[in-house]
Design a protein that fits this description.
The protein is mostly helical. About 80% of the residues lie in helices and about 0% in strands. The protein has one domain.
C-alpha cells in the first residue's frame, strides 16, 4: 500500500507542471518529456537509497542533482537550435549556456546547494521525529 502512495507526489508534480506551463502560454513539447526523464532518474536514485544511512542520502541527493542537471541540459542541447550539435556545443550547454542568459552552471550550483540543505533539514527533522516517537 505504501509503495502506491510514493507515486502521488510525482503524479501531482507532473500534472501541475503541465497545467502551469499551459497557463503561462508554453506549448507542450519534447522539453516536457526531458524534464520528466530527469525526474524519473532522480526518483530512481532516491528509490535505491531507502533505509540507507545519512552519508548515502546526502551523496544520493547530490548525485540526483547532478543527474537531473545532466539529463535536462543534454535535452536542451539536443532540442535547442541555439547550440551546435558538437562536443563543444554540448560543453557550452553544460557550462555557460546560451549567450545573454545566466550561465547554466549557476543553476547547478543552486540545485546542489538546495539539495544539500533540504536533505540535511529532512534528516534532522526525521531524526527528531523518530526520537520523539520513541519516548
Amino acid at each position: 500500500m505504501a509503495s502506491r502512495w510514493t507515486l502521488l507526489p510525482a503524479v501531482a508534480w507532473t500534472l501541475s507542471y503541465f497545467v502551469i506551463n499551459k497557463i503561462q502560454g508554453y506549448e507542450f513539447g519534447l522539453h516536457f518529456f526531458v524534464v520528466i526523464v530527469g525526474l524519473a532518474v532522480t526518483f530512481g536514485i532516491g528509490a535505491t537509497l531507502r533505509k540507507k544511512r545519512w552519508p548515502y542520502l546526502i551523496g544520493g541527493s547530490l548525485g540526483a542533482a547532478l543527474a537531473f542537471y545532466a539529463v535536462t541540459n543534454t535535452g536542451s542541447w539536443f532540442l535547442s537550435e541555439q547550440y551546435a550539435k558538437t562536443w563543444a556545443g554540448w560543453i557550452q550547454c553544460q557550462t555557460i549556456g546560451i549567450p545573454g542568459y545566466p550561465p547554466s552552471w549557476m543553476f547547478l550550483k543552486g540545485q546542489i546547494a538546495a539539495s544539500a540543505l533540504f536533505t540535511a533539514i529532512f534528516l534532522v527533522g526525521q531524526r527528531r521525529f523518530v526520537r520523539s516517537e520513541q519516548k
